[in-house]
Backbone:
């Protein structure tokens, strides 16, 4: 199956995958709140799963990323309900060493909760340890930022399909934007978010931080290259390493990437 100009693909008799739109934003954020913020290893390690305000700050991060117009959702055909999502982010190489990356700025300026700040700083630190722009000699990437599926729809390979189509979407951006989301589309709750300037470049790689066994299996299945492995016990929130709350001292994350051309 090829990604079509209609921005929607039927992937089984139960689901379709499509670009995030004004109609699906609310449902996509609900999946992050109910799934990622509760079950993801780093959400547990940083206690975002116990802090509703911190979870809301992660939803703001997702809403901000949505403006890049590269996020995808899975919709259940029988209910028209969003059941899985990949919030993706366009990352552009900094023009100077003093310029802070997006995640670092968000953690410093827009997080009021220590738990959400811890999680987003984790992302910034891990991304910063492996310069994929330099490694691949490129200036732009699409990052699969947050991947989540509602519990009752897991084990259907929806995460794998979201990542596969995210890679396909990233390749198509060479020809121009696919889907447009505006600050107005996000609703009044997110009216403080700054609108996007059009990107002057396009992704040459797709990257991600896989933080669980499930996402690491997806990366392997889709031929992502692992460039860095980091034990999650290195990250501490409120005096405890993430792994203590996760209940697995050997848990780790992977920084991965895949060339698009």
Residues:
């Amino acid at each position: 199956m090829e990604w079509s100009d209609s921005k929607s693909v039927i992937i089984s008799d139960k689901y379709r995958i499509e670009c995030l739109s004004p109609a699906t934003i609310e449902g996509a954020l609900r999946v992050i709140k109910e799934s990622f913020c509760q079950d993801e290893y780093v959400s547990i390690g940083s206690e975002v799963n116990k802090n509703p305000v911190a979870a809301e700050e992660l939803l703001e991060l997702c809403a901000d990323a949505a403006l890049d117009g590269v996020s995808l959702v899975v919709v259940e055909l029988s209910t028209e309900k969003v059941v899985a999502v990949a919030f993706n982010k366009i990352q552009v190489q900094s023009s100077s060493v003093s310029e802070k990356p997006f995640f670092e700025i968000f953690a410093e300026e827009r997080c009021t909760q220590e738990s959400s700040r811890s999680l987003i700083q984790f992302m910034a630190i891990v991304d910063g340890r492996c310069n994929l722009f330099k490694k691949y000699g490129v200036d732009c990437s699409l990052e699969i930022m947050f991947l989540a599926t509602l519990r009752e729809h897991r084990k259907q390979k929806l995460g794998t399909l979201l990542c596969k189509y995210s890679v396909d979407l990233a390749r198509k951006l060479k020809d121009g934007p696919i889907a447009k989301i505006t600050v107005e589309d996000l609703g009044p709750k997110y009216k403080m978010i700054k609108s996007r300037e059009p990107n002057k470049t396009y992704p040459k790689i797709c990257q991600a931080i896989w933080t669980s066994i499930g996402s690491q299996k997806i990366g392997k299945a889709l031929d992502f290259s692992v460039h860095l492995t980091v034990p999650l016990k290195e990250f501490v929130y409120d005096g405890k390493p993430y792994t203590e709350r996760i209940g697995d001292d050997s848990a780790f994350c992977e920084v991965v990437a895949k060339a698009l051309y």
About this structure: The two ends are 19 Å apart (CA to CA). The mean pLDDT is 94.
